[in-house]
Structure formats: structure tokens, C-alpha cells
């Protein structure tokens, strides 16, 4: 994080500089899995403003890229080619129990649906408010941090 300082440079004139206030903070890393190229690309652009984002277009590709401890959050669609997102998420969480998961789906799910079991949250597609996506991701990441330290 950088902080702006006012430096004296003569009478009443000053310069704004960016001076580091501490070590650079690493950004949290997300694994985003969706077979819809357009949606995956849009979410990658949105989320990469705040996070490091790796993407996959299938459960198989996500499983191949997965490394324990690499990801702070899995964001996955429910309907994926080959293996559904809920099945993939359960498999990955069996390997990395501390990784939170967010389900995104166009299916009309209701709270209590067994496909939501094990997810830390879910969002219904289409997304009409992109701030909702950012807030949900931030909330799940914050809850995960609190669980780890508390």
C-alpha cells in the first residue's frame, strides 16, 4: 500500500510522492470455473481488479490446475461439461478443506437444495448488479479469514 506525502519544495509549493508504507501485500487468488466463455471473461475482468484470477472452462481443467493452498476461493458454475461444479467442488474441498467455495448458477435453486451443500455461498445468474458479485466474494473471503484466525 502506498501513502501520499506532501514534501516542501520552496515557499508554499509541494510535490506529491508515493512512498511505500510497508511490504507489498499479495492479492488473494481465485479459481474461476465456467464453460460460458463470455461470462467467464467478464467475471475475470471484474474480479481481476481486486484479485489474482485463474480460469478454467471445465471441471477437468480446474482439477488439473488445482494445487492445495494456491487458491483462496473457488468460484464455479453448477453446470459444467463432464462433471458438475458441485461434484468438482466437493472433490477439491476433500483435498483442501480450508478453501471456501462460491457457486454461480442459472438453475433455479432454493435454499436447502442438496447441490448447495458444502458451498459458502451462491449467486443466481444472470447477474444484474455486478457489485453483488464483488460483495459476495469479499464476504466469503472475509468469513474464511475469520475462521482461520478464530
Write a brief caption for the model:
By secondary structure, this protein is of the alpha/beta class.
Question: How would you describe this structure in keywords?
Answer:
7 strands; globular; 5-stranded parallel β-sheet; alpha/beta; 150 residues; 4 helices; Rossmann fold
Descriptive report:
With about 150 residues, this protein is of the alpha/beta class. It has a single domain (about 25-150), classed as Response regulator (Rossmann fold, 3-Layer(aba) Sandwich). About 35% of the residues lie in helices and about 25% in strands. The chain is built from four helices and seven strands, in the order βββαβαβαββα. It has helices spanning about 35-45, 60-65, 85-95, 130-150, and strands at about 1-10, 15-20, 30-35, 50-55, 75, 100-105, 120-125. The strands form two sheets. The chain has a five-stranded parallel sheet, with helices on both faces. A two-stranded antiparallel ribbon has the order 1-2. Strand 1 and strand 2 (about 15-20) form a beta hairpin. The longest helix has 20 residues, at about 130-150. The chain is globular, with a radius of gyration of 19 Å. It starts with a strand and ends with a helix. The model is unreliable at about 1-20 (pLDDT under 50).
Compile the SSE list and pairings:
Elements: E1 2-8, E2 14-20, E3 29-33, H1 37-47, E4 52-56, H2 59-65, E5 73-77, H3 85-95, E6 101-105, E7 121-124, H4 130-149
Parallel strand pairs: 3-4, 3-5, 5-6, 6-7
Antiparallel strand pairs: 1-2
